[in-house]
Design goal:
Elements lengths: L1 H8 L18 E3 L4 E2 L5 H17 L3 E3 L6 E17 L5 E16 L18 E9 L7 H18 L6
Parallel strand pairs: 1-3, 1-4, 2-4
Antiparallel strand pairs: 4-5, 5-6
Length: 166
């Protein structure tokens, strides 16, 4: 009986499931539309949708439109580029890279930083993310499909940073 009681109580509080991976006291997240400082204005809406989908799938949080939620995840696309990696003998692009750069900040109601990628806080409330995707036009790939893949990967990386540090 004693060993059963010890295994049930333990020495420290323990949470089961993925709830132990996330900050306690946060149940809702407000995700405003991602601001887009580039000339491709559809990227902000696409990234917002991808982030909301990732939060709903991978975290215990509920995304809400209410700005007074427990926390707010603000993102801004600060750059997008396309560069040629290789070309044919006739100077046509063969392989290109599409890249997206995003600044993200996750704060609670009091404005305290919840998103951190460093063990020692730097004082900066935002984290920079960048994602490159290679595409080959000769194979039928386009810059739009590469950007969509980059956006989905960025959303996954941003949501991964919402986990508590060990």
């Amino acid at each position: 009986m004693l060993s059963l009681a010890i295994t049930q109580v333990g020495c420290a509080p323990y949470q089961f499931g993925n709830a132990a991976l996330f900050p306690p006291g946060v149940q809702t997240v407000h995700v405003p539309i991602v601001r887009d400082s580039t000339f491709r204005h559809d990227l902000g809406v696409r990234l917002t949708e991808a982030i909301i989908r990732e939060i709903e799938l991978r975290t215990p949080y509920k995304v809400t439109a209410d700005p007074s939620a427990d926390s707010t995840l603000r993102c801004e696309i600060i750059g997008e580029t396309k560069r040629m990696l290789t070309e044919t003998n006739a100077d046509f692009p063969r392989a290109l890279d599409a890249a997206v750069q995003v600044r993200a900040a996750w704060t609670d109601r009091q404005g305290r930083l919840l998103l951190s990628n460093a063990v020692v806080p730097t004082g900066d409330l935002s984290i920079l993310f960048s994602q490159d995707e290679r595409f080959v036009p000769e194979a039928g790939q386009s810059v739009d499909t590469a950007m969509q893949k980059a956006i989905e990967d960025l959303a996954g990386r941003i949501v991964s940073q919402m986990e508590v540090r060990w």
